[in-house]
Amino acid sequence: MRKNTGKERKSVKKTMHTRFLALVLSAALLLPALAGCSKKTGVDKDLAYPIDGEPVCLDPQIAADDTAKLVTGNCFEGLVRLDESGKIVPGAAQRWDVSADGRTYIFHLREGMKWHIADSDELEELLGKGKTIDTTLNAEDFAFGFKRALLPETGMASAKALYAIENAQAVHRGTARSDQLGVRVVDANTLEIRLARADSAFLYALTLPMSMPCDEAFFQATSGRYGLERKYLICNGPFYLSKWNHKKSLLLKKNPDYRGETAVSPASVSLYINTDGQSRLDKLLEGRYDAALLAQGQAAALEERSGIAMQEIPNITWSICFNAGNALLKNGNLRIALCQGLNRAALEPASGLTAEAQGFVPASCMLGSTSYRKGAGAIGRLAYNADEARNRWESGLDALGQKSATLTILCAQEHADMIRKLIQTWQGALGITLILRLEAVDRAELRARVERGNYEIAFAPVTASGSSAVEFLSQFASSASGNLLNYSSEAYNKIISSMNTAASEQLIQLCKQAETHLIQNALVYPLYAESSFFARAQNVSGIAYHTLNGTVSFLKGERLDS
């Protein structure tokens, strides 16, 4: 073997040093190129989005408020999911088979899926020192999630969306055991779901938060605290909950354990509580928010050159709402008298509202894939009849043993003039036995108070949080959470109950019956239709608003920085 001479050794060292410098220089040149690649593609950005308020609970099986639905919709993934256009695409299931009669679905789960643990120390603190859980995501987790959603003790009224599943209604009502539910684990990666009847909307129900998986061991370990704090939550979706700064913000980060067929574009999404419409608009224009839901007034103020892309959502009906939980307004004659004593033609136009309502159910609501409003047509209000109104008013007061009634009307500040005219109309029709007071507040307070039932009469926006006409009308049933009318009626409950087992062609008539019932029994007097607008900031793409459930998907959200 030939030995290196001293000169040769020096030459080798020099060559190696030169090569090392070349590598360092190449790396230095490559780093800006890689950063530029992210800049050009818009991926791995930290996105920001405003929300209306604090989520009550992030347990998907009971997620009811809009923020909870948004967070769980991004931190969990069901068997299927919605793409940016609202179509069903594979989620945790990479494919599925459907029987010839449309009643049996076999879902084949992806290999290698895992639950993401945000903090292993917090998990050990929860489980006990040295203990852990199997983080493998499998068919058992989906079966347990469906059973939890339908158990009576879970208390999820909207679980009726899963009633197509065999025995689901009986389980939900407590007349069948959860092991009788038509959900069977074939093996770790295969789940069978049997339906009581073929249902073309069934796959869409699987995209709702209640259809998300739930790890039974982790759920039991939380001892009733599942979803109440960050440490009581594990996620399988594109993001996981990294921080929960109560009453201020939530931070979602890209889930490194996500195994979906679509890569997660953003690095993170910050959700900031902000109910100020003007502030939302300003931050959107400044680029501090990447998207936002705007009121019709804010959207109208935008100019085409702003570069803001907008999607209209006709999901609001401004109505005069009567709180049937009030001691006076429980009386149907008093409510009907107020509606019959309302001379619509004499009212001043409402500031910012121009489109006449065609009924109580907003135009965004659907039955399957068809528009409910177009199919049902307009639903008329109670007709103005001053004489009939006074007779009913006096009859109602007599029944309550009252000689007069004092009521307060709550409204937004910009609608105070219209409501003053309304008061004059009512007092002219019903006389001095009706004493009315006006309370004008900002829109955020109006909305919050009506949602809490803290009002007597209110001229307020009633918003459809999803696209289902059945779900919108079901929220006014006696047992429904969030029944802002505080209405209790066996006749109305019966109509809603009939919807759960009705064929699709019967649903439109049942929905019309329910809507007509609310209007003719003077729970609501619809006046104006209004739209919300989902807006994306300039150079932002891929953030999708799903009208089906009223949530936003950040999975493919990108921003090209200038």
Commentary on this structure:
This protein is an alpha+beta fold and 562 residues long. The chain is 33% helix and 22% strand. The protein is built from 17 helices and 23 strands. The strands form seven sheets. Strands 11, 12, 13, 16, 17, 18 and 19 form a seven-stranded mixed β-sheet that branches. A hairpin with a 5-residue loop joins β2 (80-82) and β3 (88-90). The chain is globular and about 75 Å long.
- Structure annotation, total helices: 17
The main β sheet shows up as: 7 strands, mixed
Unreliably modeled segments: 1-36
Task: Report how far apart the termini are.
Answer: 61 Å
Shape: globular
Helix content: 25-40%
| Average pLDDT reading | 91
DSSP strand (E) fraction?
15-25%
At a glance:
This protein has 562 residues and is of the alpha+beta class. It is 33% helix and 22% strand.
Sum up the structure in keywords.
single chain; 562 residues; alpha+beta; seven-stranded mixed beta sheet; four-stranded mixed beta sheet; 33% helix; globular
